[in-house]
Specification:
Radius of gyration: 29 Å
Keywords: ATP-binding, Nucleotide-binding
Protein name: FtsK domain-containing protein
CATH class of the largest domain: Alpha Beta
Binding site for ATP: 178-185
InterPro entries: FtsK_dom (IPR002543), P-loop_NTPase (IPR027417)
CATH architecture of the largest domain: 3-Layer(aba) Sandwich
Strand content: 15-25%
CATH superfamily of the largest domain: P-loop containing nucleotide triphosphate hydrolases
Structural class: alpha/beta
Oligomer: single chain
Domain FtsK: 159-349
Bound molecules: adenosine-5'-triphosphate
Order of helices and strands: HEEEEHHEEEEEHEEHEHHEHEHHEEH
Shape: elongated
Helix content: 25-40%
Distance between the termini: 109 Å
CATH topology of the largest domain: Rossmann fold
Amino acid sequence: MMVTLAFPSPHRHWRGGRGLFDGLRARWAEQRRLEHHARLEDELRGLWREACFGVGVCQYIEAAAGMTVRTPRFGAARILRGRTTFTAELLPGGEPEDLRAHAPRLAHTLGFRGLRVEQIAGRWVRVTLLETDPLADAFALRRLVTARADETVILGRAEDGVTLGHAHADAAHLAVQGQNGAGKSAFTYGLLAQVCAAPDVLVAGSDITGLVLGRAWTGTAHHDWQTTGTRDLPAHAAMLDRLVAEMDCRLDAMPPRRDKITPTTTTPLVLVVLEEFPGLLRAAQAKDKKLAERITSAVLRLVSEGRKAAFRVLMLAQRFEANAVGGGYARDQFALRLSFRVPGESLVMLHGEDARKLGPEHANSAPGIAYLSAPGHDCTRLRAPYLGDYGEFCDRIARHGRRAS
Ligand SMILES: Nc1ncnc2c1ncn2[C@@H]1O[C@H](COP(=O)(O)OP(=O)(O)OP(=O)(O)O)[C@@H](O)[C@H]1O
């Protein structure tokens, strides 16, 4: 008879031991993770307080023991799939906008590249910390065409992921500046491709480069209102005079009890594009001072009186220096202002003293990244949508551009 001795299996024994140590190791690891998390949370809490104090999102409270500073209360931090978020309670009377307005500087103090703020409930917000520039990725412009002047066109995407838009029916002229290769033309291609089909929009203007306006618009209703090139500078003055005459006609024929024209198919909103306007002025000045004066005074009339007659001016320049764009008065007429990469001084020139702190970083920003400001709105950093190459712009205008009747 063979007896098979039943020895406890060494293998099973070993596995049982490992199970015991594994359990301990897992608990230690969990303990370390919790300690690490608590340390990180404490560090973030301290940095958050310093950051809010540093940018001025705080309240000073008189107490018996002296003055204390109150900052938005840090709630709890969470790290999930490599992304750090935390909750914070806004100060009484505070809005998420107070934090968004200082997002880049708050993020830098916390050691991150950017942050997003979203409201969750009551005064509580969730802050998401971003390790990379939220505007680093290109923002493709979908095949979007508007059907009316009062529809919103996309201007760009802000750091908090919100898409910023603008309806040309709002009475604002648009100033765009940027150095060579900073993205002005790409932005303009995107903007014009969005409005080219609307039956109540006319894209007119002057373009010495002949790329934004002109050939790409052949066969459309817009083409007849566009002048291009540098060979015939008086033609630019004549086009601007023609636009002023149309504006005067509209102002003269204003219906009773009305003080502005609503765009229709018969009186479309006229988007007057002035591509590289300082270049046109310089070229005209070099040829004939009177011609330059004629161009300046026509543009001055369009920007100062055009709004009520459904005229909107989109002026593009490398630098929005007053004397390069027809004077300080002309520059003041632009409510919507967009700066692609420019030296710090140019940023201040167009957006005011508050923009000075943004200058050094913006002076090196990638093509397509811009600052936008409008009355009542702080400077917002955004990424302009990208339509594709120039051929894509030409294709879209050829496909969608409103046809000449
Ligand atoms: N929004 C954007 N997203 C991604 N890339 C962009 C964007 N805008 C511009 N670019 C890239 O930068 C290049 C230069 O842009 P663009 O021609 O618009 O500059 P610009 O300011 O008009 O320069 P210039 O004054 O020389 O005409 C484009 O060919 C494109 O490759």
